[in-house]
Amino acid sequence: MKTRFLLIVSFLFLSMSVTFFILGQDILALKHSSEVAMNTIETLQQENEEIQHTLVDLEKEKADLITEMEKLTKEKAELEDKVNDLSSQKTETADVQKKTNAEKQTEADKKSKKIAYLTFDDGPSKNTEKILGILREKNVKATFFVNGYPSKKDLYKQIVNDGHTLGNHTYSHNYSKVYSSVDEFFKDMNKLNDFLEEVTGVRPSIVRFPGGSNNTISHQYGGTKIMNKIVSKVVESGYQYFDWNVSSRDAEKRTQDKNVIIHSVLEGAKYKNKAVILLHDLDPKTTTVEALPEIIDELTKQGFVFDALDENSYAPHFL
């Protein structure tokens, strides 16, 4: 009986030893698996950091490319100015040769005439009323590329009554909407023309695209060719569109420094015979209003006269 008991105890002890051994192996295996998992996590974290650094580098490259593209766009506009001036000179020279001395002098005067076109985008607003007062005081005509604001009907009427030009800048100025397709752009543009005709009796024949004809934001909504398609359709429909060859830079900040605006306009116009000047008259653009009298006075000193745009005016095109 005692021997049997000892055998049972020995068997139990052996079984427990085997069990503990197996458990020990499992624990070691789990520990190893945990270490592998930790190593994997560390590797993934390192790879994620590398990806984040790569994304930062790509964003910097993108910003550099955008800056370079803006520089090239400006250079293109300046070259177009020179080409247009040369082309105009060539055509007019042939006509002048057929005229009398008095007529030749008249044509020469027209050719050398420096014209500044003040253009205001995104209004009307409370600043538009102040701008109209300055223009009235200076006896200057300008162009307002407006959006649709039913509460501002009196300002649209005042623009027309003061002898300025109304231009279409789309009703909504909503990039995601107007640049989603050619049809959506025309729906929005026609909505504004209908509204302006009802309010003022004037249906604009000139257009300025939000962001300009070469803007790239539109690519997000209508693809990389959307502006080419819209521009072609606008021209085909009998409208003239206007970009600009002088920027006031008042769109670079919510409220730009007054002196930056003045300097940008005067330097941009200095060597041009025809200056289409981009300004804005949204509510925050108080410094644009403040800069306007000095801009007019200094451009006058440079020999410019002022005029409002129409479909036959000199028209800078980015596309």
Automatic annotation (TrEMBL):
Residues 114-307 form the NodB homology domain. Residues 92-107 have a biased composition (Basic and acidic residues). CDD domains: CE4_SmPgdA_like (cd10944). Residues 82-107 are annotated as: Disordered. Pfam families: Polysacc_deac_1. GO terms for molecular function: hydrolase activity, acting on carbon-nitrogen (but not peptide) bonds. InterPro entries: Glyco_hydro/deAcase_b/a-brl, NODB_dom, Polysacc_deacetylase_ArnD. SUPFAM superfamilies: Glycoside hydrolase/deacetylase, Myosin rod fragments. GO terms for biological process: carbohydrate metabolic process. It comes from the Bacteria. This is Polysaccharide deacetylase family protein. It comes from Fervidibacillus albus.
